[in-house]
Protein 1
Amino acid sequence: MSQRRAGFIKSSLGAAAAALVILAVAFPAWASLGGDTASIQADQLQMQGTRTTKAVESYTVHEIRAGTGTVVREYVSQEGKVFGVAWRGPWLPDLRQLFGGYFEQYHAAVQSQGGGRVARRPVMIDQAGLVVRIGGHVRAFVGRAYAPEMLPAGVRAEDIQ
Amino acid sequence: MRGIMRILIISLMVCPTCAFLVGCGGSSPGSSSSSPPNTIAPSGTNVATISVSGGPLDDYPDAAFASVTVCVPGTSNCQTIDNVLVDTGSWGLRILSSALTVGLPQQNAPDGNPVSECLTFVDSYTWGPVHTADVKIAGETASSVPIQVLSDAVPAPSGCTSSGFPSADTLGTLYANGILGVGLLAQDCGNPCPASYDLYYECASSTCQPIDQALSQQVTNPVALFATDNNGVIVELPAVSSAGEASVNGSLVFGIGTQSNNALGAAVVYTTDDYLNFTTSYNSQSYPDSFIDSGSDAYFFLDSSLTGLTNCPNPSNDEGFYCSSQNFSVTNLGSNGASGVFNFSIANAATLFANENNFALDNLGGPSSTSAPYYFDWGLPFFFGQNVFVAIAGASTPGGTGPYWAY
């Protein structure tokens, strides 16, 4: 766990004006991936979590610590759009909530994942508008999803974790 | 003869410059090379036979199966169910409703409504009611064990389907008659297990609401409820030739250091972190989210850019596996500081699968991700040729208190 925290802090180093704000305001909204900042409030409510934000150079990371112990990060562009989400923790977050308008596309893809072999393995979805990785195991999930065309310039897929 | 050839071939692959020198295999894995073959306990009161043989549909590579007997608690009204997947990556017994003929009592919530569970795995979920059974394996008995009966008769609630995953509640989707979860924990949810986890539900007709679930009511690793030999298990499978074999038999031994047949011996204890993970180090990089899981049907690790392996074509039958060959040497590191080198080989999955009768595949691999966080999922091939001890959290053993792996 300490390494994970360290990684997060490290990823924020170099931010010109790193801000740490704990928000308690709640107003309803819907959609997350592809949605606006307000949609993160809905995620926070649904997860019964606490939220912190960190500003990096070209985006802001909203970290929600859910009541389940799972930590969700939502990556928001300067235009205020969620271009990526990531999670780590004992229980999978509500992906219907977290993926918002991308859930149906994801759902169709994950339902038909795999070739002809029986395989118990991680989820890897690579589609034109959506990339999803789900791995780890029960009690230790890791995963992320992003919309490639929404990545701000200079942001790499591996920044979303 | 085959064994000798295998030693020579592996020696050449792992250690090409010193293939025949004594000592070359000092860091070689139990699954190959010059270390003596692992001892597999003959069946007995604390030993169940397991087989890697394709499962009930003859289509499941690298999966170990056992027979489990469930009984109406306190009675001799029992049913033996074969082809139950042995899974060190989960906890508790789950049986397809379609495989169950004996009428087990259901568990009810305090208000009298039946309890159901949704357990989300990494690529699917299981859904269905919690029932209570006496569970018998080999000569061991666990009384009044909460088990999950997999059934979509009552539709899974939205909190269960929010993963988007397909369910694995039928033979055609589970590829087994059930799952015997004998991993590092005694219960599947832990304490506390509040309603907000969306794990346990009570269902009035077809409407289900999440509920808090006490530890004693959770689906429970039957081993933890055995009267004796209840601190863990050993999964014992023989080495497999590099081309794969049709099937192999091994043993699931109950207890660690409780009988003459389950001593730790020279096995190294690797404790895990809070997430039941340990660290695998490869090519000067550490991957702290790594774990051992007999329910994963290959070595799933890293990706093609980090390994140099080629992904099988996508789409193809072999999608999700690696389709080239390479040898690897890694170091596993426990939270307790114990470390050990492990060597293994990956072969072209398309070649391995070409013989459709082979289900024990020592060199089957696939990627676990294609971007960070990377990790090693030590699936069933890890178990071939080396006995793997699984110590249950909180249980005391001669190697210390669980949870830990030892091999």
Protein 2
Amino acid sequence: MSKPTLLLIDDEERILRSLRMLFFSGYKVHMTTDPHEAIRMLRDERVHVIVSDQRMPVMQGSELLRLAREASPATMRILLTGYSDLDASIASVNEGEVFRYLMKPWDAEEVKKVVADAAAIAEASFAVQLHEVQLHTEVPVDMAGAKPRVLIIDHDESIAKTVHETLGDRCEIIWAADAQHAMEELAKQDVSVVVSDLMLGATNVGYILKTIKQLNPQTQCIVVTSFNDTSRLIELINQAQITRFLPKPVSKGILVRNLESMLERFHALRNQPALQNRQTVAPISDPQEKIQAGNFLGMLGRLRAKMGA
Amino acid sequence: MHQATQTGKEIFSLVNTVDAISPDCPLEDVAAFFTHPKYSKLLSLPVVEEGRPVGMISRYRFMDIYLKRYARELHGKRPIRKFIDGKPLLVELDQPLAVAARHVLANMQFPLTEDFIVTRHGRYLGVGFVMDLLHAMEQQMLANTMELEQANAQLKSSQLALVQSEKMASLGQMVAGIAHEINTPLGYVQNNVAMGQELFQQVQSMIAGYEALVDDLLDEQATEEQIAARMQQIVEKRADVNAQEMLGEMQGLMGDSLYGIAQISELVLNLKNFSRMDAAATEAVNLNECITSALNIGRNVLKDKVEVIKELGDIPKISCAPSQLNQVFLNLFTNAAQAMEGQGKLHIKTWFADGAVHISVADNGKGIPEEILTRIFDPFFTTKPVGEGTGLGLAITHQIIQKHGGEIHVDSRVGEGACFHIKLPIAPAIVPHQRAVLEAVA
């Protein structure tokens, strides 16, 4: 296999030179300070991984990655930024759909590993001609067979009600008001889409999303919350690959539109298992959450064994 | 609050239970009452009929009648009813003290000749002395004053806390901005050093290979095979690492790293200049320096969207608290940046005229509507969403300028921008009444 291609964008040339040195032995490295040129490069050449800065004078990184998604859907997108503001991280989820959100200053070994993983995943994506798959998902999902299951994890019933009113005839909607109930539902059967708040009272349920994504990469996670802690959100991008982050209160239209597109995404991934790796998650980093995830997995195993028996 | 809980009790403590006299009581008997020790403290005797007070007879009035010639013979047997003041001073038991005092003061006669009657639901209860009432009133005023003083102290301390929190909020924003800005040079410097270390090891091992080869070549005992093996090792290493190219590249990265470290130093220096923690609180400073320092600190907010035009004139140093004026300028600059939708211009001008330094800060942002123009310096007035602004930024700015004996004015048109004009005298007259709050600002 020839060397994978890596495209680096940053308004600081010294960052580009430094990263080129880090990658030049294993990759064909392109770099530019101009986001528009980056888009041209993506169109002209097969690029496996794009690594972009967030704050640039011409264009925000999240916006560039959104354009990159259109120009070359199979290319894996990574944000590398020194600024951790909430708006940027939300945009990187909803618009950029980034594979990883990395912080400056970075750990060289970690960045190398992330880029290597991303390059391998991109290679597999190119093989299944992602373009066609994505176009295919634009048409309404064929609902033949089992109805897709949507799990709503939220203290408040209002979101579950809204979803039930609009998608109730096409999907099976389950509402869990607490972590225990959510875990039981997830143990019973896989779900297509999880719509979850982050805080149920004082309980942070981020670990549930992270664990689900480890078990079922095709399950799509939408976070709807008024809890806005940027570092928690970045963790959820990297460790749960949440595909949408919607601040509460969320309008019915936005919620339903995003939910529908995530149902389509679920079907696309189910039909093309090679693409599931695109949402591979990083290991859970928080020690407390590691324990919670371990307990959840244990419970899941017991429940599934019981049901199987 | 105080009065409500005390209602009834306050008046009750003033009541002297005194047997009232009947209106039918003859005048000559009243003379006996007045001389009785039981009534010695009373200025007047209460007259009550069927439980209800019908009047008062004062010593003064009594003397007036009784000391006239033949009065005893003429009036001695006549009932007191004929002589009493039919409009006695009445105080209901459950009236608040202040209301009772007001009523008594408004209706009492000078010289003081009468006491007042205390009633409960209109029925006679006893007699109260005006002096006691005034004394009780004074006590209550004293207590109220203390309460007010306490409330005032609480207000002052919460005001200080708010000013402090505004200061912390702007400081926090600033520190976060600088920290982020440091992350970029820190990112490549750290990466370059880490790669340099790795390259260093590779080059070290190559040099070791070359040295071993040279040693072998110089060693007459070394065999051809031994030398060939050494050379093979070196060839393999050279295939792995293109040392020449890598070293050339690394030389460039070392230059970058030095540049990055200089940038980090500059950012840290900016922070230090801005806070001036190590400088005297008051010193002679050229305000152009303060403006430059605030611009450096605010760069992270300004750089992407604001074109800064500086017209800094030749101005004398003024005696001031530079850390406070830095805060003023940063506040004006960031406000201007926030007022801009998209790209904008910030025009900063300084000049010297009429014994004062003038500074104008003009932006071409969305401007300030006329109806709020007079309120923008008011504490807690903000147009930002809840949680984003404390509404104290410009209020503190105003106070700092006032404390320096200066003035600040604003001129704005909606859609055209806003211009703040500051005038600071060279030798400020410290305005003393602003001290309390400004101590927290300093």
